[in-house]
Amino acid sequence: MNTDNTKSQMRKGMLEYCIMLLLRHQPCYANDIIQRLHEAEMIVMEGTLYPLLSRLKRDGLLGYEWRESTQGPPRKYYVLTDDGQEALSQLDASWEEILRTVNILKQ
Amino acid sequence: MNTDNTKSQMRKGMLEYCIMLLLRHQPCYANDIIQRLHEAEMIVMEGTLYPLLSRLKRDGLLGYEWRESTQGPPRKYYVLTDDGQEALSQLDASWEEILRTVNILKQ
DNA sequence: TTCAGTACCTTGCCATACAAGGTATTACAA
DNA sequence: TTGTAATACCTTGTATGGCAAGGTACTGAA
C-alpha cells in the first residue's frame, strides 16, 4: 500500500482517481475508460492510460480478465481489487481534503 | 497565455492553482505561502515552491516587490498581475470542470 | 490475401515535485 | 567587532508521469 505516494500523486493529477472511480461501478477496458472519461469532460490519451493501468495492476489495485469481442480482438477488462477498493476509499478522503483546501483558499 | 498547458498541468497538480488563489487576496512571500497552505492542509516544499514562483513570474502571471523585514533579510512579496488574474479565472473554470467530472464519476 | 478497424503496448521527450545542499542578509550576543 | 543563529532565496540531481508518435497483433469483410 503506497497511499502516501498515491496521495502525493493526486496533487499532480486527478486522473488515477477518476479512473478508479469509474472502475468502482463496473469493469472497463481501455477504450471504455477513454470514452466515459470523455463524457465526464476529462480527456485522457492512450499513451497515458495504458502505462497507468499497468502500474495500478502492478501495485495490486487492479486486476483484469480477457473478454471476447464481437467486433475485433479480445479486450482486457480491468476490475478493482480489494486493495484497490481500499486505496480508492483513501483517495476519496484525499479528494475531500483538496475540496476543503480549495474552499478555504477561495474565501 | 498558456492556459491550455496550465489546464493540463492542473490535472497533475492543484498546487499552482492554490498558490494563485492565495495571492488573489494579498501579496505573500514564500514562507507566508508555505504557512498558509499548510493551514489549509496542503503541504508544499521550498524546493517545489521557489521554482514554481519563478516560473509564474517568467510567464508574466506574477510580479514581485522587495519588502524590508524587521526580523531578517528582505522578502520577495509576490503579487498577481493582470494576466495572472485572468489566468486564475480560467483556472477557476477548470476547477469547476474537475468538480463536475468527479461528481459525475461518483454517481 | 489484403486491408481496415480495433485493441494493446512501448519509446523518447519534457515538465515538475521533492530532497538535499548552497548562498546571502540580518540581528544579536559575546 | 566578530561569530552564530535565524531567516530568506535559490539550485542541483533524481524519479515520476503525461503525452505524441510509432509499433504489434487479432479480427472480419471485400
Shape verdict of chain A:
globular
Mean pLDDT of chain A: 86
Give a short account of the largest sheet of chain A: 2 strands, antiparallel
Largest sheet strand order of chain A: 1-2
Number of DSSP E strands of chain A: 2
Polypeptide structure, described:
The structure is a homodimer of 107-residue chains. By secondary structure, chain A is α+β, with helices and mostly antiparallel strands. Chain A is 64% helix and 16% strand. Chain A has a two-stranded antiparallel sheet. Chain A is globular and about 55 Å long. Chain A starts with a helix and ends with a helix. In chain A, 22% of the residues are buried. Chains A and B meet through helix 2 and helix 5 of A and helix 2 and helix 5 of B. The structure holds a DNA duplex (30 and 30 nucleotides).
Structural descriptors:
homodimer; 107 residues; alpha+beta; two-stranded antiparallel sheet; 64% helix; DNA-binding
How does the SSE layout of this entry go?
2 copies of one chain form a homodimer.
Chain A: H1 3-12, H2 15-25, H3 30-39, H4 46-58, E1 62-69, E2 72-80, H5 82-106
Antiparallel strand pairs in A: 1-2
The structure holds a DNA duplex (30 and 30 nucleotides).
Task: Give a brief description.
The structure is a homodimer of 107-residue chains. Chain A has 107 residues and is of the alpha+beta class. Chain A contains five helices and two strands.
